């Protein structure tokens, strides 16, 4: 009986690992091509399982047509890549493998919260402008059977892209590698000719930016917590992708940015967060930009809790914009320009030393009702009606509507503090016709007795589309 059982067990091991080698987390070839070597909770040795993959479609937001050859990658809660790159097919569909810890020997995935990034020729990258990447939870992944992938798909895994203006189409891409150690991530920013393009390197260090205007004088720089890099100088020719651009380390980054947050009247007492944005990516109208992985207080993945002193360590040399209360936490930076601690902070970190220690006053946000009062993009039929809760001490309001890249399309700067029958402040859109299926954002500012601004709606809410 023993002689018959042993060959069967050996056969199962061969099927699981692809040959007689032990499954190794750092060696993709140690499992069969259709399987993945994954850690199992509470067990010392990893095992080979059917992979977990995020599945979806990349499509044109305006027409609904499939977008082929788009590149999709996944980031974790820290903004670090957790996957390679998946390329969409002619039908726009992609399948992105996600390394995933398993809870048992059956391969049941341990859920993870991820966000997606996507880029394609002739399209604006996602996320960008007002468009934010909402987290998805892979704990809902399901398997169709033995050796079939654990697949996760939802409305959030279908990525809609906005086409560039005709004058900006047909431009080449730029690609290369960043020198990173295992477990690190890098934000790559390409600057030049008054433009900034960004990408996040995948788990192998590869990166790519699309639609770069031809010309010389570009500078490709990487931002990684704990490391400085030597920028690569690049020129781009029309119709020719600039490839093989290597960005290499130039030593450790030891700078610490410190400051304070003062929660004032009306603020959510649970606290807030502080992030650092690469200055060349900062959109002043939208008050947002690209945050290098890890440059956040408290540490990424932790709920906002700063209510006094804060510190961000390992900051690379560079120019940054420091933002407080940027996330959806019920708080906003106090917008009154006549009060100290309310200005947007621009700083330079040079030779490991920040040029300033920004301090901020943070107040409670105007509570949006709709559209887009939650964390999703809301679809609107007909003419939009913008509603929000009255703000304490407000005498009037200003309302602005932006397109997806931060261009203002309409404003009403004299909204009276008059409630509708439901108890909300309500304003009917009165600007030029909005383009169906395009994403817009509205924002409101509360003004006090002296017509000074006293609060805003949160920067990441208020997204909507029209039918």
Features:
3% helix, Immunoglobulin-like, five-stranded mixed beta sheet, mainly beta, disordered N terminus, 4 domains, six-stranded mixed beta sheet, 37 strands, 467 residues, globular
Structural commentary:
With 467 residues, the protein is mainly β. The protein has four domains: 2-159, Sandwich (Immunoglobulin-like), CATH 2.60.40; 170-251, Immunoglobulin-like, CATH 2.60.40; 255-364, Sandwich (Immunoglobulin-like); 368-466, Sandwich (Immunoglobulin-like). It is built from one helix and 37 strands. The strands form nine sheets. Strands 30, 32, 33, 35, 36 and 37 form a six-stranded mixed sheet that branches. Strands 3, 6, 9, 10 and 11 form a five-stranded mixed sheet that branches. The longest helix has 16 residues, at 2-17. It is globular, with a radius of gyration of 24 Å. The N and C termini lie far apart (70 Å).
Distance between the termini: 70 Å
**Helix share, percent:** under 10%
User: What overall geometry do the principal axes of the alpha carbons give?
Assistant: globular
**How much beta, percentage-wise?**
35-45%
How many domains would you count in the coordinates?
Answer: 4
SSE order and pairing:
Elements: H1 2-17, E1 36-38, E2 47-49, E3 52-60, E4 71-75, E5 86-87, E6 93-97, E7 113-119, E8 136-137, E9 142-143, E10 150-152, E11 159-161, E12 174-178, E13 187-192, E14 195-200, E15 206-209, E16 215-223, E17 227-230, E18 232-236, E19 242-252, E20 255-263, E21 274-278, E22 296-297, E23 309-315, E24 318-324, E25 331-333, E26 345-350, E27 353-354, E28 359-364, E29 368-370, E30 378-380, E31 385-388, E32 396-402, E33 408-416, E34 425-428, E35 440-447, E36 453-456, E37 463-466
Parallel strand pairs: 3-10, 3-11, 12-19, 20-28, 30-37
Antiparallel strand pairs: 1-2, 3-6, 4-5, 4-7, 7-8, 9-10, 12-15, 13-14, 13-16, 16-18, 17-19, 20-23, 21-22, 21-24, 24-26, 25-28, 26-27, 29-31, 31-34, 32-33, 32-35, 35-36, 35-37
């Amino acid at each position: 009986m023993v002689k018959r059982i042993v060959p069967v067990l050996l056969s199962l091991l061969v099927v699981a690992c692809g040959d007689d080698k032990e499954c190794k987390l750092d060696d993709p070839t140690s499992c069969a091509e259709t399987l993945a070597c994954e850690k199992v909770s509470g067990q010392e040795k990893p095992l080979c399982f059917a992979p977990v993959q995020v599945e979806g479609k990349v499509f044109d937001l305006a027409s609904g047509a499939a977008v082929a050859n788009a590149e999709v990658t996944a980031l974790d809660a820290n903004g670090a890549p957790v996957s390679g790159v998946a390329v969409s097919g002619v039908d726009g569909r992609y399948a992105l493998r996600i390394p995933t810890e398993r809870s048992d020997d059956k391969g049941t995935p341990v859920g993870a919260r991820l966000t997606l990034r996507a880029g394609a020729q002739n399209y604006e990258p996602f996320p960008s402008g007002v468009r934010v990447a909402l987290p998805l939870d892979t704990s809902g992944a399901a398997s169709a059977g033995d050796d079939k992938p654990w697949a996760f798909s939802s409305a959030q895994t279908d990525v809609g892209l906005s086409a560039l203006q005709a004058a900006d189409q047909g431009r080449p891409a730029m690609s290369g590698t960043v020198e990173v150690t295992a477990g690190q991530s890098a934000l790559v920013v390409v600057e030049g000719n008054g433009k900034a393009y960004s990408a996040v390197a995948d788990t192998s260090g590869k990166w790519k930016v699309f639609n770069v205007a031809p010309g010389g004088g570009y500078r490709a720089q990487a931002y990684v917590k704990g490391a400085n890099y030597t920028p690569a100088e690049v020129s781009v020719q029309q119709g020719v992708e600039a490839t093989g651009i290597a960005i290499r380390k130039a030593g450790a980054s030891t700078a610490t940015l410190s400051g304070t947050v003062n929660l004032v009247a009306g603020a959510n007492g649970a606290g807030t967060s502080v992030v650092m944005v690469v200055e060349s990516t900062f959109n002043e109208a939208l008050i947002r930009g690209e945050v290098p992985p890890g440059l956040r207080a408290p540490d990424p993945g932790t709920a906002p809790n700063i209510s006094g002193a804060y510190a961000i360590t390992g900051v690379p040399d560079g120019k940054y914009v420091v933002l407080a209360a940027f996330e959806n936490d019920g708080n906003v930076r106090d917008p009154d320009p006549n009060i100290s601690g309310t200005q947007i902070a621009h700083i330079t970190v040079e030779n490991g030393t920040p040029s300033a220690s920004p301090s901020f006053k943070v107040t409670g946000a105007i509570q949006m009702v709709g559209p887009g009062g939650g964390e999703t993009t809301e679809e609107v039929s007909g003419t939009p009606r913008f509603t929000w809760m009255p703000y304490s001490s407000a005498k009037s309001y200003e309302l602005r509507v932006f397109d997806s890249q931060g261009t203002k399309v309409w404003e009403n700067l004299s909204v009276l503090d008059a409630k509708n029958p439901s108890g909300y402040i309500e304003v009917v859109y009165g600007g030029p016709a909005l383009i169906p299926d395009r994403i817009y954002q509205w924002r409101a500012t509360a003004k006090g007795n002296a017509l000074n601004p006293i609060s805003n709606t949160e920067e990441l809410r208020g997204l909507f589309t029209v039918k």
